[in-house]
Write a structure and sequence with these properties.
The complex is a heterodimer of chains A (321) and B (283).
Chain A lengths: L12 H7 L1 H28 L2 H7 L9 E2 L4 E2 L2 H32 L2 H16 L2 H28 L14 H25 L3 H9 L4 H12 L1 H17 L2 H6 L17 H8 L6 H40 L1
Antiparallel strand pairs in A: 1-2
Helix pairs in contact in A: 3-13, 4-7, 4-10, 4-12, 5-7, 6-7, 7-10, 8-9, 10-13, 12-13
Chain B lengths: L2 H42 L2 H5 L13 H32 L2 H16 L2 H16 L4 H25 L3 H9 L4 H29 L3 H4 L19 H9 L4 H30 L8
Classes of the chains: A mainly alpha (321), B mainly alpha (283).
Chain lengths: 321, 283
């Protein structure tokens, strides 16, 4: 190789080009730039293709209840409501279960058991959402109608959230299916965060006479609190954007109902169901506006989640050093 | 032993046992899903499923050969689109970029990774379907390929960066130029991790349904080339599962079993490549 100077910046542009370095840099740069370009194009397309509802309805779009394609009246409230309610139900179920499991995997289980279980959890995360939907339609929906609904409706039927008839499909069913889907994310991230808590924290608590649980719950978990919160945000972002499983079990009725057993609709589900049938620009663009809203919501949640997780893991390594 | 201490011990043991129950329940769900799918899918699957086209609405029998071929076609095209961008972009991030550009690219990739798949579908629709005026395998592959980019990109970067400095310096000390070092030393040293990441990305998009609904759409016949609406397994599962026909439900179970089996096999394969280090032949 004829090049004499040190590797890197000080050689002339042409000598680097001859060696292929500059060429390789430019080629890979083009591909890296493509990633930025695609992302920018995504945001741009969503924005310009949702201009009609923005002009016609403005922010009222998000607080209007009517969704009437025939009269060209579009309001997003029932879908926003459905998305939020199903996600909240999902989190209420999955957060305690997921954090409990993460504590077991990080604090209690021997490494080999923990790794094996984590392997299964990873596989669970790989199950595609349409499979959850398939199982939801044929197992959770009948189970809901015949077992869970009578169980909750008889003693708690006076509460508005458990009132009314059940068709099997509805907010609660969608919430349960979503809960199962997001548990792996909560477990994986929380486990990582818990494992990054420095050893001395645990040992100090145990040395002060706390029981194993007290050291875990009062020292280790608070230490990892922000990271666990991050995992919950991550799960929430997943739940909000989840499409197929929800579409298949939520009942697809654009109504706001207090009862969790009532059928509803979610943002992602209405896009999935009506996008190909949307006639007229305003109809189509209203659906895209819903997509944009969903995008912004998950964007904010993902950003927060990443921030929280980074902050916690850095705190762990900072103390240990 | 005081009553207070006994109580604290009891709480400790009880709560720790509960965490075990939580972990058990979570893992049990996987086996319930597998068992249920094996039972229902196993009793519904037959040779026709793999070899026959769907029968007209209302008739029983037929299979999903077109969807199996369609899924394969779209996944291949998606990989051809997504993997090079992710891989080469990852090389740029790990080897060439300055701090500023790197953080912009990384940020874009993370953003893309978090976009709900249905929104990706909208994007592919407005970018590929609208100009060509019809649904196509191409549009579906574009949507899925886009979803493969961030995973491939970030893990290529991670694995390249984890290659020991000494290898790099050794190659450069022998007079190799930078790209030669990358192509002959660094990438081969990291190929196992990168391959795993690509396989995992493939497994993830293989089950994606939402972005295909209005890009590849669906087709009850064989589709030729890449410019026609194309049937895929996930979309078929969806349409068949929500249909009112008993025989379609049966086929949805069979398709679910095939799809999940495929995805889990790719997953397990990918993870074994990474952890156990099965020798993958390379030239």
């Amino acid at each position: 190789m004829p090049s004499a100077g040190p590797v890197g910046g000080s050689r002339s542009f042409f000598s680097r080009l001859r060696d292929g370095d500059e060429f390789a840099r430019l080629v890979t740069l083009v591909f890296a730039a493509t990633v930025v370009l695609i992302t920018a194009a995504l945001v741009w397309e969503l924005w310009i293709n949702s201009v009609l509802p923005r002009q016609k309805f403005g922010l009222h779009f998000f607080v209007t209840q009517t969704w009437d394609p025939i009269m060209d009246e579009f309001g997003a409230l029932p879908f926003i409501y459905g998305t939020l309610v199903t996600s909240v139900v999902a989190l209420l179920i999955s957060v305690p279960l997921g954090i409990g499991a993460a504590i077991f995997l990080a604090e209690l289980a021997p490494p080999s058991v923990s790794d094996t279980l984590q392997f299964f959890i990873d596989l669970l995360a790989a199950v595609p959402s349409v499979i959850y939907g398939l199982l939801g339609v044929f197992t959770v929906v009948p189970l809901m109608r015949t077992v869970i609904y009578p169980l909750l409706n008889k003693p708690f039927g006076f509460l508005p959230i458990f009132k009314g008839p059940s068709y099997g499909v509805g907010f609660f069913t969608a919430g349960i299916v979503l809960a199962i889907m997001v548990i792996p994310y909560i477990i994986s991230v929380s486990r990582e965060v818990l494992l990054s808590v420095p050893r001395d924290q645990r040992e100090a608590a145990l040395a002060l006479g706390s029981t194993r649980w007290e050291s875990t719950w009062k020292v280790v978990v608070p230490f990892a609190r922000t990271g666990i919160l991050g995992s919950i945000f991550l799960a929430l972002a997943r739940a909000l954007g989840e499409t197929m499983a929800v579409t298949m079990v939520i009942g697809n009725t654009p109504k706001i109902a207090a009862s969790l057993f009532a059928p509803g609709y979610s943002i992602a589900a209405v896009i999935a169901n009506e996008f190909t049938e949307a006639t007229g620009d305003l109809y189509l663009q209203s659906l895209i506006a819903l997509g944009l809203a969903l995008f912004l919501l998950t964007f904010i949640l993902n950003g927060l989640a990443r921030l929280l997780i980074v902050v916690t893991t850095q705190k762990g390594s900072g103390v240990a050093a | 032993m005081g009553r207070r201490l006994r109580w604290r011990r009891f709480v400790s043991n009880f709560m720790l046992a509960m965490t075990g129950v939580c972990a058990g329940v979570s893992v049990l769900v996987l086996f319930l899903i597998l068992g249920y799918l094996l039972f229902n899918g196993g009793t519904s699957i037959n040779w026709d499923f793999f070899t026959k086209l769907p029968k007209p609405v209302g008739e029983t029998g037929g299979g999903m050969s077109n969807a199996i071929v369609g899924s394969g076609k779209i996944l291949l095209l998606a990989s051809l689109f997504g993997v090079p961008i992710g891989f080469l972009g990852g090389i740029y991030l790990a080897e060439f970029s300055g701090k500023g550009t790197a953080s912009v690219v990384r940020y874009a990739a993370d953003l893309l990774n978090g976009v709900p798949s249905i929104v990706i579908g909208i994007f592919a629709y407005s970018l590929v379907v609208l100009p060509f005026k019809h649904f196509s395998a191409l549009a579906g592959a574009f949507a899925l390929g886009m979803m493969m980019i961030p995973i491939t990109l970030r893990s290529t970067e991670e694995f390249l960066k984890s290659v020991p400095r000494m290898l790099r310096e050794g190659a450069m000390a022998l007079g190799a130029s930078k790209w030669k070092t990358i192509a002959t030393v660094i990438v081969p040293a990291a190929y196992r991790g990168i391959l795993t990441a690509i396989l995992l990305a493939l497994a993830r998009v293989a089950g994606e349904t939402a972005p295909l609904l209005f890009t590849a759409f669906g087709n009850r016949y064989e589709s030729h080339g890449f410019s026609q609406p194309t049937a895929t397994l996930p979309v078929m599962i969806y349409t068949y599962a929500v249909s009112p026909y008993e025989d379609w439900h049966r086929q949805a179970w069979a398709a679910g079993l095939v799809l999940l089996g495929l995805i889990l096999i790719i997953n397990i394969l990918a993870r074994t490549i990474l952890s156990r280090g099965i020798a993958v032949p390379r030239s």
